[in-house]
Specification:
The complex is a heterodimer of chains A (626) and B (177). Chain A is built from 22 helices and 13 strands. Chain A is of the alpha/beta class and 626 residues long. The termini of chain A are far apart. The longest helix of chain B has 22 residues. The radius of gyration of chain B is 26 Å and the shape is elongated. The chains are: A alpha/beta (626), B mainly alpha (177).
Chain lengths: 626, 177
């Protein structure tokens, strides 16, 4: 019995030795392929590549193989020699090696060994990564963890090298997809070198979360530029409406103006003809709203309470409706509207008022003064940004700066008005034919009177895409249910940059089945081959990785998969003429008017004075009004 | 002397190209240029320069328009309503409808301009890395020829080197202008 057992053990050992020897013989016989495979595996390990990259490289060797076979056919004029070319090359390689010139042997076998080696390397690398992913590989229990941490570093380094190459990451791919950057790693998404988004994904709702200094603005600028570039391309091909980008920057201050300036230059290079910066440089007209909408918007701009105060809100609404809906037509400016908030004006405007209107005017007469005072105060604080002239159709992109951190009440009113103006533009104006992307940054700062989910749902019903960005999960909206509502309906995907609390979003990304292997430890550090594997659910997006993302790195979560991206920064050419345009976060103050004489171009030029032809011009263009 | 048209809207109106210009300054400059070049003048004026000044005034009369002109990477020549003057990432791709083929070269011009553009892209990219890549491909090809002569495998190796060069070198070129 013992002899039989010993014989079995020896036989098993001999079998193993024979297998190892056979493997070694095979490796030696196919030495060039083995060498290329080893090199490919080393390169994949160093670059953190997925196996598919080696398979693709093997495919790209096809031209080499075809040329080699074609050249063989031309040289030998024999189909049989072409068919036998791999075997003959292998034989010739060994003969050349035996004769001495190794370089000649390498050249002889290269067209065959390189693609096969890459393929073999890909298979071996795939097996290795699978073993480490399932915990079945490595010499110690912590080896898989160390392997993946090291691979992450290698993948980041490779992605950074890729974005550093000037032509490796274009704004649009050849297929017209928007390229966000270089892929670091994917899980549940197709492994690719570049992270691309179809245009339609940007026409859907998206959420971007990342703390300050993580590259959120860089990512947003890239997405905006991609949206405009691709949208304009589609429009030029008559495949879609002209794109319109509206950014609501709800922080305000000097930083917002710096971003606006950068956005203008970036968007200009992406093809945008003009970027309007509101309210510093451009205006919109609240008075372009249809009268019923104008009444609602004007009433909503004024803060009013509930309970007993509701009575005054009703009175205010009635008076505003009378002022807006006067037979003479709706107001055309703030001054016009304020002038109408007068009992005398209203009485004159409705000379043949119905009994109900007359009763309304009589009962509201005592409040009209207060209402006028409130609106006068409101418009003084709002400034002239909403007093026109201008509309969203005037530019390809609007960058609206709301002072949400310093003047919250004003910013809230502005946000309300801008949302109504955009909704009206999208439904009644020329905006019906445009592809509109509304990007709101830190909207929670101004969302007290216009909840963001309401904006979200409204935009969805109007066919607008909304891109909400915030510094944290908590900054997305005021309440938890609102946050979940926003994140769960982001059908264009969620971008996560480094943030300390990514769990709610990574939870939304879901989980995927993963194998977990436990192996027996014989003694430290001997790790036995036997063990148990079981399936478990692992998060698609690992919160630990998201917490440790570097600057410019983002996780794009979409449909149960995640792609980690190294975002390529868009560097717009510096303005040809530089000037100190943003100083203290305020709009630039107009310089004292100087009569700039005409002459040689450029600053500081002292051109010759021209004769005064005022009368001639007045005759030609009409009198000048100062 | 009135500045030549086409040298930028600021120069056309004789204004310094700087931020902070007011509407009044632009209007006054426009009226002065218009007065000197208006076709209704007794001497016939200068219609071409008057038209250029009118275009420049249209571009610069708003603060937004002035900012756009200042932000133009190719120089303060553009303005609202004009396509970007500088070649950007989307240059040659995104053009208004009806101008989709604007700027496309004839075959003869393309034959001459193609290599020149490629050279410019190489200079704007990473020329040192490109040179290294070229040197590596050339070295492999030369080694193959020296070691194995003009054998079928040599042709294959040369093809492989060229494929590798084409696939990798484009990353080191600057984006097309």
């Amino acid at each position: 019995m013992i002899r039989l057992y010993l014989a079995l053990v020896i036989l098993r050992l001999l079998g193993r030795v024979a297998l190892v020897l056979a493997g070694l013989a095979l490796l030696l016989a196919a030495a060039p392929v083995s060498l290329v495979a080893a090199g490919a595996m080393a390169a994949a390990w160093l670059g953190g590549w997925p196996p598919i990259r080696l398979y693709r490289a093997a495919l790209w060797c096809l031209p080499m193989v075809m040329v080699w076979l074609a050249a063989t056919a031309v040289a030998t004029r024999s189909l049989a020699r072409v068919v036998a070319a791999p075997y003959l090359a292998w034989l010739a390689m060994w003969h050349a090696t035996a004769a001495g010139p190794v370089a000649a042997a390498a050249v002889t076998i290269a067209p065959l060994a390189v693609p096969l080696g890459l393929l073999a390397g890909g298979l071996a690398w795939s097996r290795r990564t699978y073993a480490m992913r399932t915990g079945a590989g490595g010499l110690s229990p912590t080896a898989p963890v160390a392997f993946y941490q090291r691979q992450w570093r290698h993948q980041v380094r490779a992605a950074q090298a890729r974005i550093a190459a000037p032509g490796a990451v274009p704004l649009l791919s050849r297929g017209g997809e928007v390229v966000a950057g270089a892929v670091i790693r994917t899980a549940g998404h197709r492994a690719a070198v570049l992270a691309t988004l179809p245009y339609q994904r940007l026409r859907s709702h998206q959420v971007v979360i990342g703390t300050t200094g993580t590259g959120k603005t860089t990512l947003l600028l890239r997405l905006w530029a991609g949206f405009l570039a691709r949208g304009l391309e589609r429009h030029a091909a008559s495949a879609g409406g002209r794109p319109l980008l509206v950014v609501l920057d709800c922080k305000g201050g000097a930083d917002s103006r710096r971003v606006a300036d950068r956005a203008r230059r970036v968007l200009r290079e992406a093809g945008a003809r003009s970027t309007a910066i509101w309210p510093d440089e451009a205006r919109l007209s609240l008075w372009a709203l249809p009268p019923p909408q104008l009444t609602t918007t004007l009433v909503d701009l004024i803060e009013h309470g509930s309970g007993g105060a509701a009575y005054y809100a009703d009175v205010m609404e009635a008076v505003v409706a009378l002022a807006v809906g006067a037979p003479a037509g709706p107001p055309v400016s703030t001054a016009d509207f304020l002038a109408r908030l007068d009992a005398g004006w209203l009485a004159a405007a409705y000379p043949t008022a119905s009994a109900s209107d007359a009763a309304l005017l009589r009962s509201a007469a005592g409040h009209i003064g207060d209402i006028a005072l409130r609106f006068r105060t409101l418009f003084r604080r709002l400034g002239d940004g909403l007093d026109g002239p201008g509309g969203f159709d005037d530019a390809d992109a609007w960058y609206c700066i709301l002072e949400g951190t310093s003047e919250i009440a004003v910013a809230e009113a502005q946000a309300r008005a801008l949302a109504d103006l955009l909704a009206s533009f999208a439904t009644h104006g020329p905006g019906q034919d445009r592809d509109i992307l509304l990007a709101v940054d830190e909207f929670s700062a101004v969302s007290r009177r216009l909840p963001i989910w309401q904006l979200y749902e409204r935009a969805r019903s109007l066919g607008l895409a909304v891109q909400v960005s915030a510094q944290s999960w908590q900054g997305l909206a005021a309440r938890e249910d609102e946050r979940y509502r926003i994140a769960a309906t982001a059908d264009g995907g969620i971008w996560l940059l480094r943030t300390p609390h990514p769990e709610p979003v990574t939870g939304l990304a879901g989980s995927r089945p993963a194998a977990d292997t436990a192996r027996r430890v014989l003694r430290v550090p001997v790790w036995h081959r036997d063990g148990v594997s079981r399936m478990r659910q692992a998060p698609v997006a690992d919160p630990a990785i998201i917490r440790s993302l570097g600057v410019g790195q983002a996780a794009y979560i979409y449909r149960g998969g995640v792609t980690f991206v190294q975002v390529k920064r868009l560097v717009a050419a510096p303005a040809a003429v530089t000037g100190k345009r943003v100083t203290d976060g305020r709009p630039p103050r107009p310089a004292a008017a100087r009569a700039g004489p005409v002459g040689a171009p450029g600053a500081g030029a002292q051109p010759a004075r021209l004769p005064d032809a005022g009368p001639l011009l007045d005759e030609a263009f009409g009198a000048e009004h100062r | 002397m009135i500045p030549l048209p086409g040298s930028g809207p600021f120069a056309t109106l004789g204004l310094p190209a700087r931020a902070g210009l007011t509407d009044d300054e632009v209007r006054v400059a426009w009226r002065r240029v218009a007065a000197a070049t208006h076709p209704d003048r007794a001497d016939g004026g200068d219609p071409a320069r008057f038209a250029a000044a009118a275009t420049a005034y249209t571009a610069l009369r708003t603060r937004s328009g002035r900012a756009e002109a200042l932000a133009d990477p190719a120089g303060p020549a553009g303005g609202p309503g004009l396509p970007p003057a500088g070649g950007g990432w989307a240059a040659g791709r995104a053009r208004p409808a009806g101008q989709a083929h604007a700027g496309r070269d004839s075959p003869a011009v393309a034959l001459v301009a193609g290599p020149a553009r490629m050279l410019a892209r190489a200079r704007g990219g990473r020329p040192a890395v490109l040179l290294l890549r070229f040197a590596a491909a050339a070295a492999v090809t030369a080694l193959a020829v020296i070691a194995a002569g003009w054998a079928p495998a040599t042709a294959g190796v040369m093809t492989g080197a060229v494929t590798w060069l084409v696939l990798t070198a484009r990353h080191d070129l600057a984006p097309p202008q």
